[in-house]
Amino acid sequence: MATVGPVTASSPEPVTTPIRVLVVDDDPLVRSALGLMLGGQPDLEVVGEARDGREGTTLAASLRPHVVLMDIRMPVMDGLEATAALHARPQPPRVIVLTTFDADDYVVGALAAGADGFLLKDTPPPEIVAAIRKVADGEPMLSPSVTQTLIRQVRQGSDPRTAEAEAKLATLTEREREVAVAVGRGLSNADIAAELYLSVPTVKAHVSRLFDKLGATNRVQIAICVHDAGLV
């Protein structure tokens, strides 16, 4: 089986195909629709469905999904709390939060809790499938415009974070800094490789070191650090 995505001590475990997906949503129609859509993909496997965040975190422990599709507004435990709980585990799954609004404050909270990105619930099915594959490969699935919107919200009143981000980035080599800035611009590994004249494996190695040096567990957190420092 193929393995995708970089591996570091602080990053999720490598993903093998088929990509194991857990759907967490309190709407049974949404769960059913996602299950039918994703079940038809040869490289995806829906391993379980949960009705709320608490059930989702419990199932994730036993089913060990690679990617969790996480609703935000749910009873018992919402998506923010569930995402934070999953993110705190030694080998967390990658989490895509689901929301109705692309600038929803809940999404900002989910990214801060460790989510790898988000989807709007009216996203076309092919784009949902592509997003799951992208996140499974270790890359965020935020468009540049959405990334800018979310990071601007996170940065409001962020003077202390600016100093902290600058201190973290000061530990990087010049090449690592270039890769970090490219990640902050929303570029994929392939795009970074082409722009900096590097191989894709070399870019993945640099990103893995960025996880360690910046204390990040996904590319969105690297991007937030870069934006907090005012480099993008």
UniProtKB/TrEMBL annotation:
Residues 20-136 form the Response regulatory domain. Residues 165-230 form the HTH luxR-type domain. The modification 4-aspartylphosphate is found at D71. CDD domains: LuxR_C_like, REC_NarL-like. Keywords: DNA-binding, Phosphoprotein, Transcription, Transcription regulation. PROSITE patterns: HTH_LUXR_1 (PS00622), HTH_LUXR_2 (PS50043), RESPONSE_REGULATORY (PS50110). GO terms for biological process: phosphorelay signal transduction system; regulation of DNA-templated transcription. Transmembrane segments: none annotated. GO terms for molecular function: DNA binding. PANTHER family: TRANSCRIPTIONAL REGULATORY PROTEIN NARL-RELATED (PTHR43214:SF24), TWO-COMPONENT RESPONSE REGULATOR (PTHR43214). This is Response regulator transcription factor. It comes from Nocardioides zeae.
